[in-house]
Amino acid sequence: MRYQISGKQIDIGTALQTHVQTELGEVVGKYAQRPTDANVVFSRSAHEYVCEATVHLSTGLTAQAKAHANEIYAAFEACCEKMDKQLRRYKRRLKDHHRERAEPVELFGAASYILASDESSAADEPDSLQPIIVAEMETRIPSLSVGEAVMQMELAGAPVLVFRNETKNGLNVVYRRDDGNIGWIDP
């Protein structure tokens, strides 16, 4: 597994890097046979240290965890515990579905745009109804089952996930509703 351990305006020593590699390697190794890479970022938020970890699995799924603590090692340990919990739940769900993914998740390219917010007041008439594009990026749309899409959305902590439905080959959306339930759009 490849590790990228960095700090935002914090000097990360070799002792902490070695500790992160061994501890995170043990946690991920328990639940994922072929993790591809891990990204760990340390930063400061006032008096607390913040640790953010992202692990990409060979199945195409991504697990993320974030924790705060007064000491940098304690922040990493809390983050590591959250990662352990997420991966344990992910593996349990895979076993509950009695389905092992033999091949990695197929990804399809798509364009992603960031549009400028409308700063003008309601009294001003806009010159045109076309939005102003601030940035254009490449994004990936995974080909998943609905259950895997819900798992991926929960693991990533995202409010919405666009995916290609494996059974129908159409684009679908799962999202977290205001009442806490999960919504699924299948056009």
From TrEMBL:
It comes from the Bacteria. Residues 130-183 form the Sigma 54 modulation/S30EA ribosomal protein C-terminal domain. Keywords: Cytoplasm, Translation regulation. Pfam families: Ribosom_S30AE_C, Ribosomal_S30AE. It is found in: Cytoplasm. Associates exclusively with 100S ribosomes, which are dimers of 70S ribosomes. Interacts with 100S ribosomes. Belongs to the HPF/YfiA ribosome-associated protein family. Long HPF subfamily. Required for dimerization of active 70S ribosomes into 100S ribosomes in stationary phase; 100S ribosomes are translationally inactive and sometimes present during exponential growth. This is Ribosome hibernation promoting factor. The lineage of its organism: Bacteria, Pseudomonadati, Pseudomonadota, Alphaproteobacteria, Rhodobacterales.
